[in-house]
Structures are given as structure tokens and as C-alpha cells.
Design brief:
The chain is of the alpha+beta class and 272 residues long. 14% of the residues lie in helices and 28% in strands.
Length: 272
Amino acid sequence: MTAKKKTSFKKSASKDVAEGHDLGQSAPTGGSSSPMTPTVVPPSALCTPSSDIPAIGGLMGDFAEEDFRLPRINIVQAVGPMSEDFEPGSIVYNKDIVLLEPGQDPKVWSDPINVTVLNAKKQFQENLDYGVEDTPEIVETLEEVQERGGWIDWRGDEKPPWRPILTALLLIEAPSDELAEEFSIQGVDDKAYELALWTLKGSAYSRAGKAINTAARFALRNKETGQPELHKGKWTLQVRREKLGTNLVYVPRLRQHGKHDDEFVEFITTLL
């Protein structure tokens, strides 16, 4: 599978800033160094915690949320800006790379790609009409929706002014050898992976978002603690075109297929 244009990948920054460690060895003690054998100065001496220079591999500064950006995936619809550059029904990474091309028959489920849902967060978004340039407001709770005079259910023929959305952080397995060369994360299974956010709303929330919610409550819940363990599940993601009302819409199918082994789960926990 190929991209519509040439792309170079850059691994997204993590929110956790790595601390520098001493990568060198201390200078020998108990005698002077030979002029032909210069003293080895450890990096910690070159870059102390009070230094203005970060250690090798380190990152220093006053960071905020806007300093970091994870790529996103999108399902291309028949209308909208992305339809000008990509085939409808494609799954596109970072608005640039085609992860999954549409099937020959749009009414048939596409080939699957393998993903892991690392975590997910539900919020509520203003349900603005298509084409409106205003940025929809997002709030955290249904109570905040109601405080704004809103609701999320259909009332007769009246569309709800707000809707639930779910933002999931995915670990995506490279679907081809070509993309494996570009992906930045090497798994313990010798496969290549990449992180991406996926925001599910409308039909995508109904189809895939609720599947994640349900798995977190039942199949991927720790029976002892009661806490969800989404990261332990294996999933496949597919796309096909369906008629919803009077519109033809490309919708996702996200299905869980068992769980990862312990080694892979341990690998996942090192990513964030």
C-alpha cells in the first residue's frame, strides 16, 4: 500500500520527558593520567541537573500540552477535504499515509489491519451541521451538556445538539512491508508499529466506540480489580460503505480477537 505522496515519518513526542543518565565511565583514581590517555569525563559532569544543556538523549524545558502532537487516523468519506487527495473508504495516517486502501466492492468489508487500543476517553461535542466553520465545543460530562441547555438523544425529528465522542489511542501494526520500513516502533515480535489517535463520533462512535466501551466493561476488564485492561486485547479494523438515512457513509468495524501474550503486554506498558 502506498501513500499519495512521499512522506518522511517523525516519531511523535511522548508527554513523559526522559531524564538523562550517566552514559560514560568515571575517570580512574589513584594516579595521574598519561598524556596519551586523556581522562574520561562522565556526561553527568558535563551536564549536571543545573546545566543549561540537556544530557544526551534528554529533553529540557518548560513544556505544555500543545508542545506535543500524536498523529491521527481518519476514514476518508466521499465529501470533505481529504476526499480530494485520497480514495473514499481509505484509512489514512496523519492525513498523509494510506494505511488501508478501500476494497474493490465498497459494500464489502475491506481487508483488516491489526490494532491495539491502549486507552480511550469519552467526551461530549457540539453536534454542528456539516460545513459550519465554527469549532465545536467539547466538554467532559453530560452534566456540562445539560448546563448548556443541551441533550444527546433524538427528540422526534430534532437532531440532538450534542453527541458523545470517544478518543482512542491505538498501537497500529504495519499492514505492509513497505510501511514497516517507515514505522518507528519495533515490537518484541519483530513487527513494526506506530501510535495514533482516533476520534470516534457519529456512526463511528456507534460502531467502534461502543465496541471499545463494551470490551472495557466485560471482556477486557480485570475480574479482581474491576478496572479495564483495554491494552491486553487484539483488534482488527475494517471499513465498508453503508447507507445511513439518505447518505452513503464509510463506517468502521472494530472487532476483538482474543488477547496478547504477557510478553507483548509488558512491551506495551513501556510505550507511554
